[in-house]
Amino acid sequence: MKNLSYLFFIVIILGSCKKQEDESKFEQKFIVNGYIENGKPAYVTIMLNMPFYAPVNSEELEKNVIRHAKVTVSDGQNSEVLTGYYDNKKVPYFYYKGSSLTGELGKKYYLEIVYGGYTLTSETEIPQDAKLNRIWFTAMPESKQQLNINFDDDENAKNYYKIYTKSQEEEDFIRCFVSNHDDKYFNGRSVNLQLNRGKKSNTQLTWTPHFSSRDTVTVKFATMNKEAFEFWQSYENEIVNASNPLMGSSFALKGNIVGRANGIWCGYGVNYYQIIAPK
Amino acid sequence: MKHLKVTLSVIFFLSTLFSYGQHNFKGLILDAKDNKPITKANVSDGFKTVLSDSSGLFSISLLKNLTLKVSSIGYLPLNYSFTSKKMFDTLYLNPKDEQLLQVEIATKKSKLNNTLASSNYFLFKGADLSRIPSLFGNSDILSALKTLPGIGKGGEGNGGLYVRGGSSGQNMVLFNDAVIYQPTHLLGIFSVFSSYFVDNVKLYKSGLPSYYRGRLSSVIDITSNTKIADSLNGNASIGMISADTSIDIPLSNNWSVTVGGRTSFMNLFLWPIHNKTEKGSQIGYDFYDINLNSSFRSGKNKFFLSAYHGKDIFDIDITSAVLTNKMKWSNDALSLSWTRPIDTNVVLRSTLAHSGYNFDFNISQENSQIGVLSSIRDLKISNFLTFFLSKQTINLGVEFSSQQIKPNIPSLINQDFAFDFGPDKTFYVNDFAIFANNDIFFEKITVTPGVRLNFSSVKNKRGNESSFSSFWLLEPSLLVKYNFNRDLSLRVTANKNYQTIHLLPISSSSFPSDFWIPSFNQIKPQYVYQLSVGLFKDWTNFEAYVDFFHKNMQRVIEFNGGIGSLIDNLNIEENVITGKGKVLGVEFYIKKRTGRLQTTFAYTLSKSTRIFPEINRGKQFPFRFDRPHDINITSSFHLNKKWAFSLLFTYASGNTYTAPIGRYIIEDNVVNEYGLFNAARMPDYHRLDFSVAYMFSHKKALKSELLLSVYNVYNRANPIFAYYDYKGNLSTSVIISQKQLALLPIFPSLTYKIKF
Predict the structure, then answer these.
(1) How much is the pLDDT for B56?
(2) Which of A80, B205, B325, B746 is least enclosed, having the fewest CB within 10 Å?
(3) Pfam families in the record, alphabetically (chain A) (predicted)?
């Protein structure tokens, strides 16, 4: 018994002497969000990521917005250096936008960002667009309106879709709740989708998935390539599941920016539709 | 380790050639009143103890002493002497009267070392449950096992067993021979086993006998009472969240049936209280179990039938997201065993066992629904021969099993539009195994080599497409026990085990989300080498052991995706990554096993790590359920015939998790950037439970008691999940708060139990 207790004691001492190492290190990088649509010039924002214990407020965000980068977009033949603009209503409030070079369906587009000795590059394409056959509302309780769409998937092409909506009082298009779709589940079929409004931000507390009667709603129906789909899928997973104990999330988003960066540069084949919700 | 199997097979074959200077005696133990065989009677020659099997048979090798002490609960002990020429005899035990039996049950509990040191399992008897506080008024066998060394808790709300640094999918839980794929109801407080249907539990953590199909961590073999009931007996209990009942019905002298059922009614009382205070989430949950057992004897043939069905229905509404998560899971088990002596020293046992498991996960928002189903059907036939030879016991057997596994059947419905996922992916697995286990008794040493050869063929079918894979697997094991004297022994076990079915660890919290996938070409069988060295000591009133273990696991799995990946039927295996695992640890156990006050102290010190090429750039990281320290103290005090008290204190290091180290903003959302995998640790887990029972006085046959149990006495908030919550406006300021979800506060409950 005596020997046993000695042994017991020694093992406990050894156990408690173990050194705890924390290898988790925060690494500063650029976060790029850029896109180009058919018929429109490119739009790019650049920010820095923030260490976990930094506060999130307008001052801190201002520090992390990159305002003096050289942002060049090219289609392989023509290129354009984007111009920086301020818009206090947006986050980040500074963005880069083109003017002469507009997107065309089926073409490739290259992005280059040069800033403080770092060069970030990426490429994308604008896939063929897709059209909606029908948009309609179904009445919900409390005079709310549920938005629905119908479209035909092209059986002979691999398609990825992303859907946004915007009502008259909203500044920007907001992703629908479950906004990304892969046609592997409905290849070649005529698809009916119920669109739920997405939350603009995960900092927002209240939100409703429906529109109100008399709302003027614009639907942005976009196609994108596989890379973009994977990025936005991982993004949606993080936004929706990070605080859900049944699901959780712990993976980095699957971006396509080369260099010390994460984020996405994507091309959208886009069509816009407008509808007014019934009384 | 490479030479292990060669060594094992040499020992195995040599053993049959030699004869040692020992006397091997076999016997049959019967009830003197009705000639029924007595199972699990203790037979001791003063040096070692063996138990009689389900036919009342035992075999013991004797050194010098030709006197045996035979004892069993409910019977008067017997001292039996015989001549050295005698090899076999039938021994009769006389039943005790009821009053004596009561005293015995209260004072004499199972002796640990009798089974643990001479074999490689921990025997836990259903009757021992009364020594541990019942949780929410429910005596539960799996919760009781978690108080033993080497069995880690998964944290609050997690029913999984984490044995010696392994995952919850590396245990095989058998209920009367049938595999139970999800042995717990939600939150781990209730296992699927009603205590009225648990008689004996054998827990194997190392040196797995070859008659069990391999698992990397443990085998938990639960059996019901197989005795034929001779009178109408009943049990019932009703508490604040569940009610349980069972009744034994004798149909003839040779045939009896036991039926029982249990149901919770938390949706009536418990959850409405939670839902009123927690506006952010609304929970609903209930479960039920139904059991039927039947024992039948015809001559020397003994039959035992066991049927079980149980189901859980859980839902949680995340109000802020207008989301409803639903989970339902159910187990079915049906088994029939047939035991008969073929000769005076040969017993044949045949079993037929069916298992079924279904898991259904569903998220809905308004009219949209995303879901995934998973199911297993399992059929097993085995034949098992035991030879009680001179100086040794040999077990030989064959087993055939067939499984149908559908790991994930996704569904996505948007309003009336159902997405097309194509035909279900189904695996058809056929396994054939032969096995042999041999106990060889030397003067001071017992050696038990064993070997199992398994052939597994797998057909992976999806619509008209199918592919085949097959595996030959050899699993050797060796147990060597050396007796220094009658109180002190050294036990060494070494084994290699394969596991051909994998539980996908998809959930990042501790909720169960059980999806099983078999081994096939893309996910090869995982395997383990384990070495365990233990020292076992007995005193008059105490017993203790120290057991060191080292495990080297290969091809263990992680799931590289969320549950969303399962809603993609095409290539689920693409999200499965394989790596290595290492576990090193030591278990301490000491128990005061006599007297009115009995106490058990169990401590496990261990380190469980993993290496995956795809995670942390191939660097070693701690296992999610790595528990450097795990302590359990249980104590019970029987004040008198009326009052009994018990308490449990449990402590464990927190789970590891992957914490965010940075964040950024994209499209107005705050996105987390995560640090190294499992680099952060949740707060330590600890909790105190307490029970007090008052036994009422009744006339003869009727017994009843009122039980007050308090779960989590000092109201520790043990978090199961840590996350960050953002509130505010990005263009002004956002409040970030770290949230920890803890489930179970202090919870007193009253239970009334009755037995007749």
Answers:
(1) 84
(2) B746
(3) DUF4249 (PF14054)
Per the CB < 8 Å rule, is B662 touching A209?
no
pLDDT at B324: 85
Q: Residue A245: which of B605, B673, B720 has the nearest Cβ?
A: B720
> Is residue A177 classed exposed, middle or buried when 0-12, 13-18 and 19+ CB atoms within 10 A define those classes?
buried
Q: Which residues 561-590 in chain B show a CB within 8 A of chain A?
A: 561-564, 570, 586, 588
Give the residue from A260, A240, A228 showing the smallest Cα distance to A177.
A240
How many contacts, defined by CB atoms under 8 Å, are there between A and B? 208
Q: What angle do CA A159, A162, A167 make, to 5 degrees?
A: 150
In DSSP notation, B53-89 reads: -TTSEEEEEESS--EEEEE-TTB--EEEE--TT--EE
Main-chain phi, psi angles of B236, to 5 degrees: -155, 150
Q: Kindly list the residues from chain B whose CB atom is less than 8 angstroms away from the CB atom of residue A31.
A: 664-666
Q: What is the pLDDT of residues B140-161, one digit of tens each?
A: 888 899 999 999 888 777 778 8
**Interface contact flag, A50 B415, Cβ < 8 Å:** no
Two tokens, residue B495 = 């084994």
From residue A121, alpha-carbon distances to A80, A100, A115, B468, B629 in Å are 15, 21, 12, 44, 49
Tokens of B343: 């000769």
The amino acid sitting at B523 is I
CA distance A159 to chain B (A): 15
User: Measured between CB atoms, does B667 come within 8 Å of chain A?
Assistant: yes
Question: B171-175 and B218-223 as β-strands: parallel, antiparallel, unpaired?
Answer: parallel
Q: Are B182 and B134 in contact (CB under 8 A)?
A: no
Q: What is the 3-state composition of chain A as percent helix, strand, coil, each rounded to the nearest 5?
A: 15, 45, 40
| Calpha distance B322→B319 (Å, rounded) | 5
C-beta of residue B365 within 8 angstroms of C-beta of residue A196: yes
Pairing of strands B747-755, B233-238: antiparallel
Amino acid letter at B475? E
Kindly write down the DSSP assignment for every residue of B111-128, as one continuous string: -HHHHHTTSSEEEEEGGG
Cβ within 8 Å, pair A191-B417? yes
B23-31 and B392-414 strand pairing: unpaired
Strand partners, B461: B426, B466
User: A141-183, pLDDT tens digit by residue?
Assistant: 888 898 999 999 999 999 999 999 999 988 889 999 889 999 9
What CATH code would you report for A132-230+269-276? 2.60.40
- Report domain extents, chain A: 132-230+269-276
What is the Cα–Cα distance from A68 to A66, expressed in whole angstroms? Answer: 6
| CB-nearest partner of A23 from B665, B676, B741 | B676
Q: Is B721 on the interface with A (CB under 8 A)?
A: yes
CA distance B235 to B245: 5
Strand partners, B243: B238, B263
A24, B368: Cβ pair inside 8 Å? no
Q: For the whole model, what pTM was predicted?
A: 0.82
In this complex, do B674 and A250 lie within 8 Å of one another by their Cβ atoms? yes
Distance CA B561, CA B273 (A): 35
Q: What is d(CA A48, CA B672) in angstroms, rounded to the nearest whole number?
A: 13
Query: In chain B, what are the domains?
Result: 4-97 (2.60.40.1120), 115-226+247-755 (2.40.170.20)
Q: Nearest CA of chain A to the CA of B687: how many Å? A: 21
- Cα separation, A151 vs B483, in Å, equals 79
β-partners of residue B429 are B403, B458
Cis peptide before A92 (omega within 30 of 0): yes
Q: Which amino acid is at B244?
A: D
Q: Name the residue in chain B with its Cα closest to that of A14.
A: B605
CA A130 distance to own-chain centroid: 20
